[in-house]
């Protein structure tokens, strides 16, 4: 490694956390017009984890951060980046308190907001901090308490979204070593922001001086249009990231896609020609955990042995904004 031009962000630790509370499909059918068969056939979800009253996103983030730091072998970082859609408060950012609780007070700390693509946007940001020489080690956490913004009576979202956190530690290293993060392909389309949104609570609604209309404080998603755009954008970004890495799609050993729902995962994998045995998935047991989805998936897959050193991994996600992204890396040997 010679000078900053040769610096790359290398994954050296990973950790995930889900809160202990579990909601089954049967629990949901008791209050919603739905069934276990309907939920499974449309989402692939059987259970999901939810926070207890009084628990916040920062609590999830701290747990995942502790596990990632332990996995890396060193409880230190020069910067903490938190990807989340559900910060503890609108102001200040949640990352500084997470850093302080992890014993990293004094480190640079800030939030990144890109909804379900937050981890990949955070990964690009953390990689930039390392490439520029601003940081030698970055703790990147993605955490969401999505159930705090979901309408419990909305069948379209209440059956899908859940709570959780995942984290990775990145260190400065060489672009050619295992764990080095490849080029991150990112994109957005604000003209379609209405497909995934929380209408109330921001300056647009507050500046009117009028109270929010009933239900506008909750997360909304237009499922059919979101499905179509998610499949298109994730597929295109994945192909670009694989090409940038100098791989063919046949070289991909593991696809780690944002766990949005089973139908999207299947459609993307089919378009990329990646068979089921090379697809990582945990959506059946954790649901859609927003920004936390990919790092939580990586942590659980590594712990289970489904993700091993040397595997060529393709990461891809799509979320509100609209925003999407993909990147690649060769999985390193980690203590999980």
From TrEMBL:
Domain called Beta-ketoacyl-[acyl-carrier-protein] synthase III C-terminal: residue spans: 243-331
For this protein, what is the EC number?
Answer: 2.3.1.180
> Main role?
Catalyzes the condensation reaction of fatty acid synthesis by the addition to an acyl acceptor of two carbons from malonyl-ACP. Catalyzes the first condensation reaction which initiates fatty acid synthesis and may therefore play a role in governing the total rate of fatty acid production. Possesses both acetoacetyl-ACP synthase and acetyl transacylase activities. Its substrate specificity determines the biosynthesis of branched-chain and/or straight-chain of fatty acids.
Query: Which family does the record assign?
Result: Belongs to the thiolase-like superfamily. FabH family.
How the protein assembles, per its UniProt entry? Homodimer.
Q: Lineage, please? A: Bacteria, Bacillati, Actinomycetota, Actinomycetes, Kitasatosporales
Query: EC top class, in one word?
Result: transferase
Which residues carry out catalysis? 116, 258, 288
* Residues annotated as domain Beta-ketoacyl-[acyl-carrier-protein] synthase III N-terminal: 110-190
Q: What is this protein called?
A: Beta-ketoacyl-[acyl-carrier-protein] synthase III
Q: Please give the residue ranges the record annotates as the region ACP-binding.
A: 259-263
Give start-end ranges for the coiled-coil region(s): none
Record's keyword terms, sorted: Acyltransferase, Cytoplasm, Fatty acid biosynthesis, Fatty acid metabolism, Lipid biosynthesis, Lipid metabolism, Multifunctional enzyme, Transferase
Predominantly, its location class is cytoplasm
Q: What is known of its domains?
A: The last Arg residue of the ACP-binding site is essential for the weak association between ACP/AcpP and FabH.
């Amino acid at each position: 490694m010679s000078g900053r031009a040769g610096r790359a962000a290398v994954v050296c630790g990973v950790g995930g956390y889900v809160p202990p509370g579990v909601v089954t499909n049967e629990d949901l059918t008791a209050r919603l017009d739905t069934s276990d068969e309907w939920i499974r056939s449309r989402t692939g979800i059987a259970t999901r984890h939810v926070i207890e009253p009084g628990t916040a996103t920062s609590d999830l983030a701290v747990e995942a951060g502790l596990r990632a730091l332990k996995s890396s072998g060193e409880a230190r970082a020069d910067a903490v980046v938190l990807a989340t859609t559900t910060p503890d408060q609108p102001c200040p950012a949640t990352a500084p308190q997470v850093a302080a609780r992890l014993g990293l007070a004094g480190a640079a700390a800030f939030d990144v907001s890109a909804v379900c693509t937050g981890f990949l946007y955070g990964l690009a940001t953390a990689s930039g901090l390392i490439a520029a020489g601003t940081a030698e080690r970055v703790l990147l956490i993605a955490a969401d308490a999505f159930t705090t913004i979901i309408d419990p009576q909305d069948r379209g979202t209440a059956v899908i979204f859940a709570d959780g956190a995942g984290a990775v530690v990145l260190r400065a290293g060489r672009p050619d070593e295992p764990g080095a993060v490849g080029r991150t392909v990112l994109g957005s389309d604000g003209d379609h922001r209405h497909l995934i949104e929380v209408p109330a609570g921001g300056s647009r609604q507050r500046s009117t001086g009028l109270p929010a209309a009933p239900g506008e404080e909750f997360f909304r998603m237009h499922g059919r249009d979101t499905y179509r755009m998610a499949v298109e954008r994730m597929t295109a970004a994945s192909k670009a990231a694989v090409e940038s890495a100098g791989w063919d799609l046949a070289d991909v050993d593991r696809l780690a896609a944002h766990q949005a729902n089973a139908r999207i995962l299947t459609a993307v994998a089919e378009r990329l020609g990646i068979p089921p045995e090379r697809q990582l998935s945990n959506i059946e047991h954790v649901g859609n955990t927003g920004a936390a989805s990919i790092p939580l998936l990586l942590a659980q897959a590594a712990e289970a042995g489904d993700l091993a050193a040397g595997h060529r991994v393709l990461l891809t996600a799509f979320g509100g904004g609209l925003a999407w992204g993909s990147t690649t890396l060769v999985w390193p040997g980690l203590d999980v």
